Amino acid sequence: LGQLMDGLKQLNLHRCANIIFVGDHGMEDVTCERTEYLSNYLSNVDDITLIPGTLGRIRAKANSNLKFDPKAIVANLTCKKPDQHFKPYLKQYLPKRLHYANNRRIEDIHLLVERRWHVAKRPGDVFKKITGKCYFHGDHGYDNKINSMQTVFLGYGPSFKYKTKVPPFENIELYNLM
């Protein structure tokens, strides 16, 4: 950042160039001890493919002859434990504000996971086999309404008011700014 600003000053462009710095997401502390395992909810976790993490996604296992029934899986994952840390959705029922449903490449089932939690198939999936240590200590991808998923925005140049703080906004609004 310093090199960029020094270069602009050397070229005498520091007062006429508009610069925007943004992050793509925030971060949240996560540990293996805060992981929900689908094996505690479903008896057939080997019959599905789970993309694990902060937004679990479930699809039919590749080359499987088994019948994949998304509605039945969601029913088997809904409100099963009082301290359950995820909520399952069929993709067409995901909250509209996520803008994430109308594409054939999007998995049929999504697990919206609570902040600071992960989802995996079974305990062995989150610990390194040799050391037994956790694969992760932080992550992103949670619901974008969570404050920790917000990120930095910094605007500098003649089009930006000096020392002005603006309220949070969605990154998509950058297109309107530019």
TrEMBL record:
Gene Ontology cellular component annotations, sorted alphabetically: extracellular space
InterPro entries attached to this UniProt entry: Alkaline_phosphatase_core_sf, Phosphodiest/P_Trfase
Record-linked Gene3D superfamilies: Alkaline Phosphatase, subunit A
SUPFAM superfamilies according to UniProt: Alkaline phosphatase-like
Listed GO MF terms: alkylglycerophosphoethanolamine phosphodiesterase activity; calcium ion binding; phosphatidylcholine lysophospholipase activity; phosphodiesterase I activity; zinc ion binding
Pfam families with a match to the protein in the record: Phosphodiest (PF01663)
GO biological process: phosphatidylcholine catabolic process
PANTHER family: ECTONUCLEOTIDE PYROPHOSPHATASE/PHOSPHODIESTERASE, ECTONUCLEOTIDE PYROPHOSPHATASE_PHOSPHODIESTERASE FAMILY MEMBER 2
Name by which UniProt lists this protein: Uncharacterized protein
